[in-house]
């Protein structure tokens, strides 16, 4: 097998990988949209059940509220890979000892508020996965571009 054949074979594989990642990214965006819409719907139902002032921005913490830490944080993990490239991936850290934010709206809240919280947590997971797929897609496209330039150089030298 010649150098051109090898380069073309790798280009074909990477192009298929890029198309698969694009399809996955589209599906993830649809899942994010569904989770957000579901969360907003459950939040609206909770507001209807409890009254418009019971589920509003008035219950959210302000500058004068006591300090609290987020229950979920997202951080960037970097690791070395082959050929000196770094792999970057978002990961979630959870703190279980925090007060449930649903309690900001009272102690006897409708189940719809818990469902909304669950849907928004699900949306966060989809968003992180989508960001990771986007990163992989960018890396794959960069590799494709590099191989195309290498192919041009090999063809020009022959």
Layout of helices and strands:
Elements: H1 3-50, E1 72-80, E2 86-94, H2 111-157
Antiparallel strand pairs: 1-2
Task: Please tell me what the overall shape is.
Answer: elongated
- What amount of the residues lies in strands? 5-15%
* Discrete helix count: 2
Radius of gyration: 23 Å
Give the proportion of residues in helices.
55-70%
Low-pLDDT segments: none
Properties at a glance:
single chain; 158 residues; mainly alpha; 2 helices; Vacuolar ATPase assembly protein VMA22
Q: If you had to describe this structure to a student in words, what would you say it looks like?
A:
The protein is mainly alpha-helical and 158 residues long. Helices cover 60% and strands 11% of the residues. It is built from two helices and two strands, in the order H-E-E-H. Helix 1 (3-50) packs antiparallel against helix 2. The chain starts with a helix and ends with a helix. The model has no long low-confidence stretch (mean pLDDT 85). It holds the Pfam family Vma22_CCDC115. One of its GO terms (biological process) is vacuolar proton-transporting V-type ATPase complex assembly.
């Amino acid at each position: 097998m010649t150098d051109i054949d090898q380069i073309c074979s790798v280009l074909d594989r990477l192009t298929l990988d890029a198309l698969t990642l694009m399809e996955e990214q589209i599906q993830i965006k649809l899942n994010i949209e569904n989770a957000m819409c579901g969360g907003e719907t459950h939040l609206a139902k909770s507001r209807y059940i409890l009254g418009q002032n019971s589920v509003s921005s008035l219950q959210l913490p302000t500058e004068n509220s006591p300090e609290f830490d987020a229950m979920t944080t997202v951080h960037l993990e970097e690791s070395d890979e082959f050929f000196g490239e770094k792999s970057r991936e978002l990961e979630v850290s959870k703190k279980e000892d925090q007060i449930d934010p649903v309690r900001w709206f009272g102690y006897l809240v409708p189940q719809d508020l818990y469902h909304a919280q669950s849907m928004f947590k699900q949306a966060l997971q989809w968003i992180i996965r989508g960001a990771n797929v986007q990163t992989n897609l960018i890396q794959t496209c960069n590799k494709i571009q590099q191989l195309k330039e290498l192919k041009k150089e090999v063809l020009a030298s022959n």
